[in-house]
Design a protein that fits this description.
Order of helices and strands: HEHEHEEEHHHEHEEHHHHHHHHEE
Largest sheet: 6 strands, parallel
Distance between the termini: 135 Å
Number of strands: 10
Shape: globular
Strand order of the largest sheet: 1-5-6-7-2-8
Radius of gyration: 33 Å
Structural class: alpha/beta
Strand content: 5-15%
Length: 370
Amino acid sequence: MHGHAPLILSAISWPIIGVWAGGVTGTIALATAVLNHMIARANLRSALLAREKALPRENAKVFLPARAHFVNRKADLDKAIMHIRSGEVALAIEGDIGVGKSATATELAHRLHTDDSRPGQPTAVDERTYIWIDGQDACPRLTDVCRALSLFTGDQSLSTAADADKLDTLRAHLARHPTVLIFDNLRLSGDQRSQQLRDLVRAVPPGSLVIASVNTPGSLDAVRLSLEDLSAPEVRQLVRHETNRLGLRDPALLQPGFVDRLQEILGGNPGMIEWFLRSLSRGEKSLEAHLLAVSRGEGLGELLAPLWSELKPSSQFALGICANLRGQATIEQIRIAGELDAGEASVAVNALLSVALVRTVRVTERRNVF
C-alpha cells in the first residue's frame, strides 16, 4: 500500500501542475496583450504628437490670398529665401507693372509658411502669423496696419494705442508675436505716412519679416529683388496654362513660332501676355489677325486698358502732356499744366518711366525731356 502512494500522488499532481502551467501561460499571454496595447498606444501618441508639430499653433493665423498658378521663377524665389534665411527682415520685390510682383510676393509667403523647399526632409510649417495688406497703389497708415493686425490676431492694444504710440506698439507686438507682413501694391513717396512705414520696416524685430511688392523702386530700405521679363520657356509655360484656362482651342497657340512672335512683340511681361490672350478669347478676330493688329499698334487700347487703369490721374495727365508735346515735355511743363508740386510731378513721371510708357529722349544741362 505504501508502495503505491507515490503513484497516486503523482497522478494527482499532474492535473495541479497542468492547471499551474496553464495559469502561467495565460498570464504570459495576458501580459503580452497588455504590452502590445501599450506599445500601440505609445505609437499612436507619437504619431499624434508628430502630426500636431506639423500643424500651425492655434494662435498662428494665416491670412494670404489663395495660391494661384505661378510660372516658375525658381532663381528669384531661391534668392529671396536665401536672403531671408541669412537674417534679412525686409524684402522689396520690384519690377514693371504686370511683371508679377504681387504673384511672386504671394508665392514666396506660401512657400515660407509651408517650407517644402528642402528635398528629403519632412515638410515644416512656419508657426508665425501671416498677414496680407493691400496698399492699393498707395501707402497704408500705421493705423491701418494696427487695425488689420488687431482684427486678425485679437490684440486689442494695437487698436487702442494712441496714434503717437502706434509704431512702438507695432514693434512690441511683432517682438512678442513673430509675424510676416506682406504689403502688396505698395507705393511710397515723401509724405508722412510713407516715412512712418519706412520707420516700421527699419525697426522690425528679429523673428518677424516684411515682404513688400513695391511700385516705386528703391523707395524702401530693404533687400531689393528686381523681377525681369519671363524667359522663353517660362513664356511657353504661361501660354499653355492660360490657353487651357481660357478655353482657347487654336493649336497654333502652342507652336514655338507663335510664342516667339508674341514674345518679340510684347516681351516676357506676364501681365501683357495674359491681357493679350484674354482679349483674344473675347474678340472676333483670328489669332493671326489679332497678332498682326497688335504688332502694328492696332487694338492696343484694349490691351493696355488694365495698365492705364492702374496709373494715378497725375500720371495719366502727364502721359497726355508728353504725347501732345511730341517728345518735348519737361518736368516743369508737366508740373505747371497739371497744377502739381515738384514732388508730385516727379512721382507721376517716374511711374510712367517704370512701365516704359515714356522714355527720356534727351538730357539737357538743366532738365530732362520726355
